[in-house]
Design the sequence.
């Protein structure tokens, strides 16, 4: 984790992005129940502080499947197998983390949270300049969103205990060696402290 402390955080300009915490994905990572509970607590804390909660899920319509090119190594397989239909239970957000009125909710059809959604437009309309990231998996939506958000000049915080990956070593390398150059890596306890001092 980063050793450089964050001086302050402005909840009014901050969004916690809860990414791919959906029924078909959550069980794929170790200790998923504990992960969900930590993220649930962070959602409540950010919400109570006046921050924005954003939900991202991956799900496809029939037209989305048809539009995936054969040379896309991941999503051509998803399309060919007719996986992750937007109405399937597997693509619904885990009921323990159910969105509330006023939350941002987007549906994506690639890894990143912003490349196939209007997420950044919605965040811009709310004056958001700081993103706190929680997601599954570290090597998928989290990696893609960190890179994209950094390029868009957001202040990015990754919750080290709010992200997970089926591959423990991949998770470790990203959190310890890749993300710190593009974001602040903190844990959920540190986020709580930042919110309380805001």
Sequence:
């Amino acid at each position: 984790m980063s050793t450089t402390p964050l001086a302050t955080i402005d909840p009014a300009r901050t969004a916690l992005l809860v990414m791919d915490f959906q029924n078909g994905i959550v069980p794929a990572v170790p200790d998923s129940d504990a992960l969900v509970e930590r993220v649930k607590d962070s959602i409540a804390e950010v919400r109570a502080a006046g921050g924005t909660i954003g939900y991202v899920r991956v799900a496809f319509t029939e037209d989305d499947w048809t539009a995936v090119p054969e040379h896309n190594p991941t999503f051509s397989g998803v399309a060919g197998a007719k996986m992750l239909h937007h109405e399937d239970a597997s693509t619904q957000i885990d009921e323990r983390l159910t969105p509330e009125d006023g939350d941002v909710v987007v549906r994506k059809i690639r890894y990143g949270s912003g490349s196939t959604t209007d997420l950044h437009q919605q965040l811009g309309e709310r004056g958001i300049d700081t993103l706190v990231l929680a997601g599954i998996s570290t090597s998928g939506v989290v990696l893609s969103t960190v890179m994209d958000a950094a390029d868009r000049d957001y202040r990015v915080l990754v919750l080290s205990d709010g992200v997970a990956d089926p591959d423990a070593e991949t998770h470790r390398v990203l959190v310890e060696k890749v993300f710190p150059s593009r974001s602040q890596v903190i844990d959920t306890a540190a986020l709580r402290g930042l919110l309380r001092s805001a």
User: Anything to note?
Assistant: The first strand starts at residue 14 and ends at 19. The two ends are 21 Å apart (CA to CA). Residues 138 and 164 are 5 Å apart (CA to CA). Strands lie at 14-19, 52-58, 104-108, 130-136, 155-164, 184-186.
